[in-house]
């Protein structure tokens, strides 16, 4: 019985220790999940912003190319429609520049680029006026300067777009890595929950076994007590009978 009791106690201790470890592991994973979710939320916002800025930069690149096209067309055709299109496109380019520089001027290398766009527009229009006045030498000189200005502006816009694309890709990579980690942690939490449930069942079984041992121990004590009492009674009766028989042999008077 003592050996059985020790086994049950050891079994209960092992099961409870296993349950405690599973609960601690689950809490640790839940805390990590919360931390990853917080980081993912911040990255999600940053990713949305980076994606939006990448789209704006790509649109800026297209709009500036369109501006160059309309100014070149104006220099050749000298039509009012081309001039109106060039002016409308310039306004769009300026709006896209403001949208980017209002976020982070230095990071994209676009600081002061609006002034360069204005200078380019001015030089291109001067070239158009020179062509209109049949001054082709001045017109060609102004057009050459304007084209160089356009190339510099286009290069800065392309570099800014590349920076934004790389930033978006980096954020997206980190975001995807967090999503993978969250999936793994979620699986771990589920596994820990299943282990806790299985261990809980083991605890209940161990408790039942312990209760059975207690009941058996009580029965043993009960029957041992009865046996001891019976033994004492038998011993007392035997001693009395022995004393009585001995008294008769020795002729000693005993009280009846």
Structure write-up:
By secondary structure, this protein is mainly alpha-helical. It contains five helices and no strands. It has helices at residues 2-77, 80-101, 105-108, 113-132, 136-250. Helix 1 packs parallel to helix 4 (113-132) and helix 2 packs antiparallel against helix 4 (113-132).
Short description:
This protein has 256 residues and is an all-alpha fold. Helix content is 93%, strand content 0%. The radius of gyration is 48 Å and the shape is rod-shaped.
List the helices and strands and how they pair.
Layout: H1 2-77, H2 80-101, H3 105-108, H4 113-132, H5 136-250
Helix pairs in contact: 1-2, 1-4, 1-5, 2-4, 4-5
Quote the distance from N terminus to C terminus: 47 Å
User: Mean of residue pLDDT?
Assistant: 76
- C-alpha geometry: rod-shaped
Number of helices: 5
The secondary-structure element order is: HHHHH
Quaternary structure type: single chain
Structural class: mainly alpha
Helicity range of the residues?
A: over 70%
Low-confidence stretches: 211-232, 234-240, 252-256
Major sheet characteristics: none
Give the beta-strand count: 0
Radius of gyration: 48 Å
- Report the portion of residues in β strands: under 5%
């Amino acid at each position: 019985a003592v050996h059985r009791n020790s086994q049950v106690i050891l079994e209960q201790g092992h099961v409870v220790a296993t349950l405690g470890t599973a609960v601690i592991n689950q809490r640790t994973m839940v805390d990590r999940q919360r931390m990853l979710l917080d980081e993912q939320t911040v990255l999600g916002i940053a990713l949305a912003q980076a994606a939006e800025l990448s789209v704006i930069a790509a649109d800026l690149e297209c709009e500036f190319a369109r501006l160059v096209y309309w100014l070149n067309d104006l220099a050749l055709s000298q039509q009012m429609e081309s001039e109106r299109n060039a002016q409308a496109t310039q306004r769009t380019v300026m709006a896209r520049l403001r949208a980017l520089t209002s976020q982070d001027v230095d990071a994209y290398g676009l600081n002061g680029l609006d002034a360069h766009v204005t200078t380019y527009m001015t030089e291109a229009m001067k070239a158009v006026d020179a062509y209109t006045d049949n001054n082709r030498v001045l017109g060609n000189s102004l057009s050459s300067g304007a084209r160089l200005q356009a190339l510099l502006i286009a290069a800065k816009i392309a570099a800014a777009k590349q920076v934004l694309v790389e930033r978006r890709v980096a954020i997206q990579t980190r975001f995807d890595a967090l999503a993978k980690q969250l999936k793994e942690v979620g699986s771990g939490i589920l596994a820990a929950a299943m282990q806790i449930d299985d261990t809980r069942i083991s605890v209940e079984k161990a408790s039942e076994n312990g209760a059975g041992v207690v009941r058996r121990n009580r029965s043993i004590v009960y029957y041992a007590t009865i046996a001891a009492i019976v033994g004492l009674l038998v011993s007392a009766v035997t001693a009395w009978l022995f004393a009585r028989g001995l008294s008769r042999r020795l002729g000693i008077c005993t009280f009846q």
